[in-house]
Specification:
Length: about 190
């Protein structure tokens, strides 16, 4: 199977997971936006700890709250977190380059040790503050967009399913014309 086909199948499966949940469109969209908010603002690894209780409190889809956090995953954090930290640090007025942010985060990921974390301690307050400010900006931008897009997807899918159901019912109610068997006198009279 080609990578394009595999990706298309995964995308379709993900789409169906969103729109087929048995709940109101608002409930589903609320859960996904909770997940997106936590995925942007909360550090990787703690997102589910925050998104699932928030989904219970705010009465949103638990499935959406879990899957919505996947904006940051093992692959995307290497792109999202440096941009998030850099943007937040710049907004805080820090004099730091994007390359510095990438190298500091890369060192932390590469070494995964207490010493690497200790070495970052001197810059940690700025990077951590930058991370949360950048994350808050992303969360406040993407959360309402997620709500609107998911709600529209669910409503459109359900309208399409309802339209197909009505068409099927209409076809079932139409009287079927009997087709005479081949070679009969009635079949010979047909134009």
């Amino acid at each position: 199977m080609s990578a394009g086909r595999w990706l298309k199948r995964k995308k379709r499966k993900f789409y169906l997971k969103i729109v087929r949940e048995k709940a109101t469109p608002e409930y589903i969209a609320r859960g996904w936006s909770i997940g997106m908010f936590c995925g942007c603002l909360i550090p990787f690894g703690l997102q589910l700890v925050c998104s699932i209780p928030a989904a219970f409190l705010l009465k949103g889809s638990k499935i959406g709250a879990v899957l919505g956090t996947f904006i940051t995953n093992h692959f995307t954090i290497f792109f999202i977190y440096p941009v998030q930290c850099y943007a937040g640090a710049k907004l805080l007025g820090m004099d730091i380059s994007y390359r510095d942010v990438v190298s500091k985060l890369g060192r932390l990921v590469k070494e995964q040790s207490f010493e690497a974390l200790k070495a970052l301690q001197h810059d940690a307050s700025g990077l951590v503050a930058g991370f949360f400010l950048g994350g808050a900006i992303m969360a406040f931008v993407f959360t309402p967009i997620t709500y609107v897009v998911v709600k529209k997807m669910v409503v459109a899918y359900r309208a399409q399913v309802e339209k197909r159901r009505k068409l099927r019912e209409k076809k079932m109610q139409e009287p079927r014309q009997a087709v005479p068997p081949k070679g009969s006198a009635a079949a010979d009279e047909r134009p």
